[in-house]
Amino acid sequence: MPDVRLASPQGKWILLTTILGSSMALLDSTVVNVALPRIGRDLGASLASLQWTVNAYMVTLAGLILLGGSLGDRYGRRKIFVVGVVWFAAASLLCGLALNPAMLIASRALQGVGGALLTPGSLALIQASFHPDDRSSAVGLWSGFGGIGAAVGPFLGGWLVSGPGWRWVFLLNVPLALLCVPVALRHVPESAQGGRHGRFDVLGAVLGALALALLTYALIEARTGSVAVALSAAAGLVAAVAFVHVERHRPDPMLPPDIFASRQFTAVNLVTVCVYAAFGGFFFLVALQLQVVAGYSPLAAGTALLPTTVLMLLFSARSGALADRTGPRLPLTAGPLLCAAAMLLMLRVGPHAAYLTDVLPALLVMGAGMVTLVAPLTATVLASVDTARAGLASGINNAAARAAGLVAVAALPLLTGMGPQAYRVPTAFDAAFRRAMPICAGVLVLASVTAFALVRRPVPGCLRPECRTHGSVTAPPLEGERSAD
């Protein structure tokens, strides 16, 4: 049984290193969007290259995050966490030194591999190290400080881009890693999951990531109408079918199909896909709209986005408590509708948009919608499976959200007619943005209808989330494995 107490010096060191590690990934997921216009200008990148700057990271992270958690269970959670931090920092250094878009995109894909190792590892270390009486408090502090990191991310990214330059968005991870790794090696105890282990589902992970990459390429490059696009789309579909086949027939699949026998679990993941597809497209495009069309500086654009994550940070725990009393159906129906209204309000944001009257109202409504739905979403995922599968269910839900976001970033420019240089032409980008927001709103309405029709109140006494405070806009918070203590 783990016996580290939260108030002890070792407990504080463990909390510090896990917060530092997870903050690297959280910051990176929120600051890069703000830097995109400056990256495009400095590297001479097309819109497709900017899409890949976001999606190369998401492809490897979404495809490998379940495998990353399994590696920690098998070989040691501290070891895999440290490997992830070092890997992430090395890839960040390559991003910061990128000489052209191709080098940046490749480095971002490597970053995603590191993120898949450290993201589940940071929470697993807390749950494996702290005494059961202190575990919930430790997880609460970890998720709370992570939420602060997510809230600060856009502001920090804007400040770095406006000041030292966009390369420091990535280079900042290097000193964080230099602080995190020695603390982890000195103060964090090693742990691994006992019992018999099956074989790793490496083939499943590779097929899943490959399917995402090929289909994303086909969507991003579809406007060219080339043979390569058609072949990529076909190969992506083949990889997706092969992934399903492998998962159905392996003795130890990464994504066991029988978990979807729960209608509630399936329904809430459908809601997740719709919600985070809309969020992914929204936060990719709004950072560009504020700078390219409204004329905001990177710092002003990053600061403008703060209200959404601050509201989540302040009120997500209360929202979760309210949903415990009312059941998840109402918040999962109302939350997406609020977010849809916010995206329609964003149609007011055009050239020379005033922050207080045009931008802030939309972001406040967006924050209210996210507060309403994200905590109940996580709770419903956990309540729909057995306790022993809590970590797996949360990992699947997290990966589904990230995959939905990357597909949206790939598809929206195609659906709205953005050309390769649209982000350099304010009128062209504004016209496409005005077509994109109703599409995102429509997807959120679909999420609301799905929740109303399919989500039901969980059974009494079901599993509850440990991460009650959060601020991430890219995916729901991860929950770890639970065990009887």
Features:
single chain; 485 residues; mainly alpha; Growth Hormone, Chain: A; 76% helix; globular
What layout of secondary structure does this protein have?
Blueprint (H helix, E strand, L loop, with lengths): L8 H35 L3 H29 L1 H20 L4 H29 L2 H31 L4 H5 L1 H15 L14 H20 L5 H23 L13 H31 L4 H7 L1 H21 L2 H17 L9 H29 L6 H26 L10 H29 L31
Helix pairs in contact: 1-2, 1-4, 1-5, 1-7, 1-10, 1-11, 2-3, 2-4, 2-8, 2-15, 3-4, 3-7, 4-5, 5-11, 5-12, 8-9, 8-15, 10-14, 10-15, 10-16, 12-14, 13-14, 13-16, 14-15
Concise summary:
By secondary structure, the chain is mainly alpha-helical. The protein is 76% helix and 0% strand.
Question: Your description of this structure?
Answer:
The protein contains 16 helices and no strands. By secondary structure, it is mostly helical. The protein folds into three domains: 9-189, Growth Hormone, Chain: A, CATH 1.20.1250.20; 201-251; 257-485, Growth Hormone, Chain: A (Up-down Bundle), CATH 1.20.1250. The chain is globular, with a radius of gyration of 21 Å. The mean pLDDT is 89.
- Named at the architecture level, the CATH assignment of the largest domain is Up-down Bundle
> From the alpha-carbon coordinates, what is the Rg to the nearest angstrom?
21 Å
Q: Please bin the fraction of helical residues.
A: over 70%
What is the strand content? Answer: under 5%
CATH-defined fold name of the largest domain: Growth Hormone, Chain: A
Query: Shape, please?
Result: globular
Average pLDDT level: 89
CATH superfamily of the largest domain: MFS general substrate transporter like domains
InterPro entries: EmrB-like, MFS, MFS_dom, MFS_trans_sf
Membrane topology: Multi-pass membrane protein
Main location: membrane
Protein name: DHA2 family efflux MFS transporter permease subunit
